[in-house]
Design a protein that fits this description.
This protein is an alpha+beta fold and about 280 residues long. It is built from eight helices and 16 strands. It folds into two domains: about 120 residues, FAD/NAD(P)-binding domain (3-Layer(bba) Sandwich), CATH 3.50.50; about 160 residues, D-Amino Acid Oxidase, Chain A, domain 2 (2-Layer Sandwich). The structure holds flavin-adenine dinucleotide.
Length: about 280
C-alpha cells in the first residue's frame, strides 16, 4: 500500500472516480480509497444529458455508449391534471442514460485505474490527522481479507464519500439540509413493466400523487426502478397510523395512473427499500 500521495480521493462513486481520473490525466499522483469492493449497489439511475459532457472530459463516453445501458431521450410527466413529454433530442446533448449504478460506477472506477489512478477497494478511511485546520494524513482499514490498517499522507484531499460526507459530517460539521429536500424515498424493482409508447424513447416516467411523486426508470436488465418520494413528515404520520413502508409504497402506485398502468402486468422482484436524508441525524 502507498504511504504517501499527492492527492487522496475518498470514495469511488461517480464523483470520486471522475475527479480522480481528471486529476490523473493532468499528471498528478492520485490515490483513491473506496470502502466497498465494486460492483456495489447504489441508487440514482436516471442521468441527465449534461453527464455526456463529463464523460467526454474523462474520455469515458465510448465505454458507456457501448455498454448497452438504456438510452434516455427524455421524460414523461403526469402532474396533477397535466401531462407532458420532455424531449432531449433537441438539446445540445440530445440524450442520456438510465444506468444500473453498480455497473456504471464499476465502469467509471475501472476507467480511473486505466488512467493512472491507484485504487484501493475494500479500504475504509477511518480518521484524519490535521496540521492546524488542514488534514494531512488519513488512517485506513481494509474491511476484508487480512484486515490490514495503515496511514497515508497527502498534499490535497478530495472527500467524495457522498452521503457519508466524512469531512463535512465528522469534522467540519457544516452539512445542512434544505427544508424542501427533507424527503423519504421508498423504491423497488419490477419485472415485466410496460414501456411508454407515447413518450420519448427510454424516458423516465414521473407521476404525482397526493402526498408526493413517483419515478419509473426502465433499465437495460429488463427491470423498472420505481420509487416514491414524500416529505418525511408525511412519512412519519403514515407510519404512526400503522402503515408499513411497503403499504405506503403500494398505495402510492395505486393512486398514480401513469406508474400504475406501467406496472399492471409487472411483478415486484425486490423488497422495497426506504431511505431518508435525515437518517444520520435521527
Ligand atoms: C432515492 C434517491 C434517488 C436518486 N435518483 C437519482 C437519479 O435518478 N439521477 C441522479 O443523477 N441522481 C440520483 N440520486 C442522487 C445520486 O444517487 C447521487 O447524486 C450520486 O450517487 C452521488 O455520487 P457520489 O459519487 O457523490 O457518491 P456515491 O455514489 O454515494 O459514492 C460515495 C462512495 O464513497 C464510499 N465511501 C463512503 N465513506 C467512505 C469511507 N469512509 N472510506 C472510503 N469510502 C467511503 C461509498 O462506499 C461510496 O461508494 C438519487 C439519490 C437518492 C437518495
Amino acid at each position: 500500500m502507498k504511504t504517501t500521495t499527492q492527492i487522496l480521493v475518498i470514495g469511488g462513486g461517480p464523483a470520486g472516480s471522475t475527479t480522480a481520473t481528471l486529476l490523473a490525466r493532468e499528471g498528478f499522483d492520485v490515490t483513491l480509497m473506496e470502502k466497498e469492493v465494486f460492483p456495489r449497489y447504489h441508487i440514482g439511475e436516471s442521468l441527465l444529458p449534461s453527464c455526456l459532457e463529463i464523460l467526454d472530459l474523462i474520455d469515458a463516453r465510448d465505454i458507456i455508449e457501448k455498454y448497452g445501458f438504456v438510452r434516455k431521450e427524455g421524460g414523461f410527466f403526469a402532474w396533477g391534471s397535466e401531462r407532458w413529454g420532455l424531449d432531449f433530442t433537441k438539446l445540445r446533448h440530445p440524450y442520456s442514460f438510465q444506468v444500473v449504478r453498480s455497473e456504471f460506477d464499476h465502469l467509471l472506477l475501472e476507467h480511473a485505474k486505466s488512467q493512472g489512478v491507484k485504487v484501493y477497494e475494500g479500504t475504509e478511511i477511518r480518521k484524519f490527522t490535521f496540521d492546524g485546520d488542514r488534514p494531512k494524513s488519513a488512517s485506513w482499514a481494509q474491511l476484508d481479507g487480512d484486515k490490514k490498517t495503515g496511514e497515508i499522507t497527502f498534499d490535497f484531499l478530495v472527500d467524495a464519500t457522498g452521503r457519508a460526507g466524512i469531512m463535512a459530517m465528522r469534522y467540519l460539521k457544516n452539512r445542512h439540509y434544505h427544508e424542501s429536500f427533507q424527503n423519504v424515498a421508498i423504491w423497488g424493482y419490477w419485472q415485466g413493466a410496460s414501456s411508454m409508447a407515447f413518450a420519448p424513447s427510454g424516458a423516465i416516467a414521473v407521476g404525482s400523487v397526493p402526498d408526493g411523486w413517483l419515478w419509473g426508470i426502465p433499465l437495460h436488465n429488463g427491470t423498472m426502478s420505481v420509487g416514491l418520494v414524500l416529505h418525511r413528515t408525511t412519512f412519519k404520520e403514515k407510519r404512526q397510523q400503522g402503515h408499513t413502508a411497503e403499504q405506503i409504497y403500494m398505495d402510492a402506485i395505486n393512486e398514480c395512473p401513469l406508474i400504475g398502468d406501467l406496472l399492471t402486468s409487472a411483478t415486484l422482484i425486490s423488497e422495497p427499500v426506504s431511505y431518508t436524508h435525515l437518517r444520520a441525524h435521527e
